[in-house]
Design brief:
alpha/beta; Rossmann fold; Dihydrodipicolinate Reductase, domain 2; 2 domains; about 20% strand
Length: about 475
């Protein structure tokens, strides 16, 4: 299958750090279709060979065995070429159109790894230069807007040029193997689905914690914040994967229809719930893994009086028959105590105890997303009897079954961006977000943004290297639960 894959922003951070290494792994795994060409587009004045050399120098920073050997990169580099285009200059797009016209292909993928403010311009110019053909697919990187109105404007502008089935709105969390296995676990097995409802589940927690700060992205983060960066897209997509009803089949729209129903069923915010069930925080100076780190307001590109949140914790519910009354908790933040992303399904206790179980512990299923990738099922079991124990109540001990996907599948594992890029080339939309999903997520998030805009108090401070402000712990404790922080 001959293809052209065009990276707008081809010299940018995302391309060399994530996308090119992912494509190289697909090339190494013999998963990349033959007859392909990868075209970097940028403002720098580079030849094809200079672009290849630049990518090769970047690859030297790739960790461990993912770094290509010289002979491997030489073969991969034969796929790379470069076109200089100033995206704000309409006449410059002619050079790209000319390059694409050099040969016949089965598909052309336009990957917009640029600022969202350029999405409309790029799409308009692709159409003006005849590059929006039926075989063209366009990939849009987040953030897709900064609120509901801007999201609608971008989707409208892109929709004037491309049909919905040509648009791939990417969320790399959906490409993670553990997320794909969440679908497989729920809908490919008979074990859990009968228990996947309010009668058996006490609460569900989604945690996405980073020990890193904003690094060199302070300017970007000042206009984004944790709610837009993590909750509106990643966290809500994970929530949908957990809570959705079984789709009628595995086709893209069947899956996305069910996710949309979940988003529409999320309880709407009220002034009371906005005050009680949404916590925002901002990290102060602290210590992470034995190293002193600065506070957010001391980071480069950040205002000394910034009110941007680096932490969000919230509680919500889904107003339908399956989940009525079950709290869903979302927590995400930077400069926290660990780099952990996981989903925790906490089951209700047995209705009648005949054994003594450890205080405060319950059966639970933990879906690890990073850095570990796998499933843990936490149960209770009876250990060996001890001499002198009476015939009274038996005490049970916690045990767990651990499925580590990396150990089980090893080198067969496919990274998130590798999986998603291959899906784009194959035209599979299952792991991509539809416009109405995205719009519904923004509609749910927007009252929080408006509430914070009118809130003079600002984010609660928390010390770098901790699990966030104490108000987050108090919020979940009001329901009689607690965050799991030693997964």
């Amino acid at each position: 299958m001959a293809f052209d894959l065009v990276f707008f922003g081809g010299t940018g951070d995302l391309v060399w750090r994530k996308l090119m290494p992912a494509l190289f792994q697909a090339f190494r795994h013999d998963s990349l279709p033959e007859g392909g060409r990868i075209i970097g587009v940028g403002r720098d004045d580079l030849t094809d060979d200079q672009y290849r050399q630049q990518i090769q120098s970047r690859f030297e920073q790739v960790e461990g065995d993912k770094r290509p050997k010289p002979e491997e990169f030489a073969r991969f580099a034969s796929l790379l070429c470069y076109v200089r285009v100033d995206l704000s200059e309409p006449a410059a797009y002619a050079a790209l159109a000319q390059r694409l016209a050099e040969r016949e292909t089965d598909s052309v993928v336009m990957y917009l790894s640029t600022a969202p403010s350029l999405f409309t311009t790029v799409c308009e110019q692709l159409a003006a230069h005849g590059m929006n053909t039926p075989k063209t697919r366009i990939v849009l990187e987040k953030p897709l807007g900064h609120d509901l109105a801007s999201n609608r404007a971008i989707n409208h502008a892109v929709g004037l040029v491309f049909k919905e089935q040509q648009i791939f709105r990417i969320d790399h969390y959906l490409g993670k193997p553990a997320v794909q296995n969440l679908f497989a676990m729920r809908f490919g097995n008979a074990l859990f689905e009968p228990l996947w409802r309010r009668e058996h589940i006490a609460n569900i927690q989604i945690t996405m914690a980073e020990e890193l700060g904003v690094e060199k992205r302070g300017g970007f983060y000042e206009t984004t914040g944790a709610l837009r960066d993590m909750v509106q897209n990643h966290a809500l997509q994970l929530l949908c994967a957990i809570a959705m009803e079984p789709p009628i089949n595995a086709h893209a729209d069947a899956i996305r229809d069910e996710k949309l129903k979940v988003l529409r069923a999320l309880k709407r915010w009220t002034p009371e719930t906005l005050n009680q069930h949404v916590i925002r925080g901002q990290y102060n100076a602290g210590n992470v893994f034995g190293q002193a780190v600065p506070g957010y307001r001391s980071e480069a590109g950040v205002s000394p009086s910034s009110s941007t949140e680096t932490f969000v914790a919230l509680r919500t519910e889904i107003a339908n028959w399956r989940w009525a009354g079950v709290p869903f908790y979302i927590r995400t933040g930077k400069r926290m105590a660990a780099r952990e992303a996981y989903i925790e399904i906490n089951f209700r206790p047995t209705p009648h105890d005949i054994f003594q179980t450890p205080s405060g512990q319950v059966n639970k299923l933990v879906i690890h997303l990073q850095p570990k990738d796998g499933l843990e099922l936490h149960l209770f079991a009876q250990g060996p009897s001890k001499r002198g124990e009476g015939s009274g109540t038996t005490t049970l001990s916690p045990v767990h079954l651990d499925l580590d996907f990396d150990k089980r599948f090893g080198s067969q594992r496919v990274g998130a961006y590798e999986r998603l890029l291959l899906d784009v080339l194959d035209g599979r939309l299952n792991l991509f977000v539809r416009s109405d999903e995205q719009e519904e997520a923004w509609r749910w998030v927007e009252p929080i943004l408006q509430h914070w805009k009118n809130d003079p108090i600002g984010p609660r401070p928390y010390t770098a290297g901790t699990w966030g402000p104490s108000a987050s712990t108090a919020m979940i404790a009001r329901d009689g639960f607690c965050w799991s922080e030693e997964i």
